[in-house]
Amino acid sequence: MSARLSLGPVFFNWAPEAWRDFYFRVADEAPVDAVYVGEVVCAKRSPFLAPLLESVVDRLRNAGKQVILSSLALIGNEREAAAMVEATGSEDFPVEINDIGLIPATAERPFHLGPFINVYNESTLSYLAKRGACRVCLPPELPASSIVGMAKNAPVELEVVAFGRLPLAISARCFHARSEDLHKDGCQFVCGRDPNGITVQTLDDEPFLVINGMQTLSYTCCNLIDEIDTLAAAGIGRFRLLPLAIDMVAVAQVFRDRLDGRLSAEDALGRLHMLSNGLIFSNGFLHGKEGRRFLPSGA
Amino acid sequence: MMELVCPAGTPAALRTAVDAGADSVYLGFRDETNARNFPGLNFSPEELGEGIAYAGRQKRQVFVAINTFPRVGAEHLWQRAVDTAADLGATAVILADIGLIDYAARRHPSLRLHLSVQASASHVAAIRFYHDAFGIRRVVLPRVLTVADIAALNAQLPIETEVFAFGGMCPMAEGRCSMSSYVTGHSPNTSGVCSPASHVSYTRRGMELVSLLAGSTINRFRIDEPAGYPTLCKGRFKVGDRASYLFEEPTSLNAADMLGELKAAGVTALKIEGRQRGRAYIGAVVSSFRTLIDAMESGRAPPPEIVGELRRLAEGQRSTAGAYGKSWR
Fold first, then answer.
1. Closest to B179 (Cβ–Cβ): which among A78, A127, A169?
2. Would you call B100 and A123 a contact, using CB atoms and an 8 Å cutoff?
3. Which of B70, B172, B182 comes nearest A171 by C-beta?
4. CA end-to-end span of chain A, whole Å?
5. Interface subset of B 285-304, CB within 8 angstroms of A
6. Which strand (E) or helix (H) includes residue A101?
7. Does B191 touch chain A (CB under 8 A)?
8. Do strands A238-241 and A4-7 pair parallel, antiparallel, or not at all (unpaired)?
9. Cross-strand pairs, A282
10. What is the ipTM of this complex?
């Protein structure tokens, strides 16, 4: 069977209506069968999305998508922990856990593990599968040798991030607020101005990283379009696209067409270049090199 | 009595730390299994055995940090490191990877397990996961918590907490940062290094000295300024037109003023960072903290010359209480 596509959670602080409309369009048009929703980066943003969540979930489910609720990546205090335990304990959703503390004490209810959980080897994968993990999105830092090694006899479904700005770090400190001389507690939600994050440049004007509130992301956009067929042949059955404020429906279609053999790798890459609004692509992590590099297929 | 946990990058540093008053010394093997995998640093199994004997003669303990994430196909290297530490009589191993912790708990049920800061367990449920599943006895807390957070954790936790008191500090959640591998191809999680020296260069440009990491500018200094090491998250960067130390200033953590608060928050042990540091530094920092802890425990005021000495030893002569004060965020 051909590999499947997932849409990861939106990392950025989009206006609630834009967030809702994005998912409505995904429901209606995007060739992905699983959609992860929920605030992953900053607990302060969650209340803005909460009132729209039900309509988004309904629309996605009615379109036949599997909807999974993603947890925060870094739980900062006990209040956030309690809120997350409540949200992820709901029977209404499968959940994607991004913080180890949310793993239930008993393996009665299966859960997904997000890319923020350090699954670097077979032993960790096998232990977490025993605890109830049913699908694991691997950390984007992993090279192909590790991914392929884990895919052999994997006890659970493995997912690999194939497109988007990669999450590189998370902090208790808000860099978006800090860049405006604001404190996190009085941040004025300045992160909402930058739907793809804000670029961090070196003092010599080299675009270097991207910040999104407490999260640091790659400046480059991960793009494994050249590699997904090899990974699929090695047993990876699912690829994740991380939302950016570009035409993600069209991006998903390119990946679908490539996986189904309707597009050559070269044509698919060309289309992604056109859709990407000047984003610079990278695939270095997969090749065991600097994550920011782009290496030609077979390198 | 608060425990003083000190770093040793070499057998000589271990002896220095023990002689200067460390209650415990932590160290790593000379390979990729530990998060300070720097050239010329760390211990062979023979050196570990000698170090444990030296510490033991003075009733001190040795912890072995095996706190990187084992590589697919090479997990046996990390497992062997745990076996060696256990066989040589280390008091505890400091681990981060779930699979390796599971191995250590099953294979060496009487070995004390400490949870490395690289596991990024920052709240009660996360710490409880490691305690309930593997019997972790102590957690090294992430440097992202306030003293109030730490007190709240200790009120609910059945295990000991160890916190960083002095030395380098990460502004990011430790063990969950791949900025270094994004830029250089090597990260703490995979290779045990961050912003590795092999990728650092300095170049003179007019009246400026530029520090670079893998060819990217991390900072620029006037020729008459001291040029700091280009650790990725301590560089100066631009957002829009404005240059700043966006992630963290090139300061080091110094919680010397907060020992009483940390003790009141229920902290068991204070940790000094710096396995890459030389003997003179280790000796000075460890004996300063020994004096401060002894003063605190006997109700005496901290000697002002010691407080000044620690300020002087802090990186770049600037220090911060970091996340222990909430304004850091």
1. A169
2. yes
3. B172
4. 27
5. none
6. none
7. no
8. parallel
9. A222
10. 0.96
Tokens of B33: 């299994």
Quote the tokens at residue A292. Answer: 């920011």
* Structure-token pair, residue B46: 């023979």
Task: Extract the tokens encoding B35.
Answer: 């998060």
Domain positions in chain A are 4-166+221-277
Q: Chain B window 63-82: which residues touch A at a Cβ cutoff of 8 Å?
A: 69-73, 75
The pTM score is 0.95
Q: Taking chain B, what is the end-to-end CA distance rounded to the nearest angstrom?
A: 31
Q: Is B127 on the interface with A (CB under 8 A)?
A: yes
CB contact under 8 A, A124 and B125: no
Provide CATH 3.20.20.70 ranges for chain B: 3-169+251-325
Backbone phi and psi for residue B208, each to the nearest 5 degrees, phi listed first: -120, 150
CATH architecture of the domain formed by A4-166+221-277: Alpha-Beta Barrel (3.20)
Query: In CATH, which superfamily holds the domain spanning B3-169+251-325?
Result: Aldolase class I (3.20.20.70)
Measured between CA atoms, how close is A279 to chain B, in angstroms?
16
| Average of per-residue pLDDT across B35-41 | 79
State pLDDT tens for residues A137-176: 999 999 999 999 999 989 999 999 999 999 999 999 999 9
Interchain CB distance below 8 Å, B239 and A179 = yes
Express as a percent the part of chain B with pLDDT over 70: 96
Mean pLDDT of chain B: 93
Q: What pLDDT shows up at residue B314?
A: 80
pLDDT tens-place string over residues A193-250: 999 999 999 999 999 999 999 999 999 999 999 999 999 999 999 999 999 999 999 9
Asked whether the predicted pLDDT for residue B317 surpasses 60, the reply is: no
- Rounded to whole angstroms, the Cα distance separating B175 from A1 reads 36
- Judged by CB atoms closer than 8 Å, whether chains meet at A202 and B216 is answered as yes
Residue of chain A with shortest Cα separation from B211: A203
Give B106: exposed, middle or buried? Use CB within 10 Å, 0-12, 13-18, 19+.
exposed
Looking at residue A132, its pLDDT comes to 94
DSSP letters for A282-295: E-TGGGTS-TT---
Q: Is the pLDDT of residue A56 over 70?
A: yes
